[in-house]
Amino acid sequence: MRRIERVSDVVELISEKSFYFGGGGLLCYIASGLIFWYRGGGTLVPLAYLLLTLGMLLLGFATHSAVQLVDVSSVGVECPYCQYQNELTSAPDDDFTCRSCNRLIPILDQQPMPVSQVRCGFCNTLNFYSEKTEILLCEECNREIPIAGKEDDPTKPRKKLSAAYVVATEDEHMYELVLTGKGHKQEELIASLQHMLALNRNQVKQMLDELPVTLLTGINRRKAEMLQAQLNLHDAETAIRQLSDPVM
């Protein structure tokens, strides 16, 4: 899978290379000129010619890097959340973070997927979700918002679960899923939580800085263990805690 690169990042990298090569070349020219000016000859003349040659090479590399700026291609991808135009070097194959709103843009067939809006029934905050959203938590009050059609829809194929998912025995208790540790695959975990909770990157990073944190509450054990297994794939440490007596 190709790495998603922003045009601004590529331009900045090429410009830095051109600047450093060009600066180094000019310093070599200045040093060789000073040797000729003050010494006029002698044993340092070979060094002066060496610096002169090195300066020419460095300036050649700088010119070559500057020419590469013309060849940088640009593909505009509009964020479905804030309509910001993200400039990439090629059409994206995978989800990436919007530079403006910092949300993870869902990508399907190299195109951004449409997002829907729903208001939280508890605090009336407007939230966004896409077809990739697995669980929607309100950005304001952190309560789960039911998404119509996400479950029990016979027209949609069920997702095939990997062997890492644990088949849980159903009971009538309610549970909460708590994230207690973030492991070593932090970037993978952030992306997974963004999809799972429909939060932006800054919100997820803030959650990771405040561990332990409750991700979901009032869910059955089967759902809690399936989500726990998914997070464990990214080296996350989680705990499932029983909330109350069995629901009658």
Kindly summarize this structure in a few lines.
With 248 residues, this protein is of the alpha+beta class. It contains 5 helices and 11 strands; from the N terminus they run ααβββββββββααβαβ.
Kindly describe this structure:
The chain is of the alpha+beta class. Helix content is 35%, strand content 18%. The protein is built from five helices and eleven strands. The chain has helices at residues 7-38, 45-68, 186-197, 201-208, 221-232, and strands at 75-78, 85-88, 96-97, 104-105, 107-108, 111-112, 116-119, 126-129, 175-181, 213-219, 237-242. The strands form five sheets. It has a three-stranded antiparallel sheet, covered by helices on one side. Strands 1-2 form a two-stranded antiparallel ribbon. It has a two-stranded antiparallel ribbon with strand order 3-4. Helix 1 (7-38) packs antiparallel against helix 2. 20% of the residues are buried. Residues 150-170 have low confidence and may be disordered.
Number of helices: 5
Overall mean pLDDT stands at 80
- The amount of beta strand, in percent, is 15-25%
Query: How would a textbook summarize the main sheet?
Result: 3 strands, antiparallel
Helix percentage = 25-40%
Spatial order of strands in the largest sheet: 10-9-11
Please tell me how large the radius of gyration is.
27 Å
What is the subunit organization of this protein?
single chain
The SSE string, one letter per element, is HHEEEEEEEEEHHEHE
First-residue to last-residue Cα separation: 50 Å
| SS-based class | alpha+beta
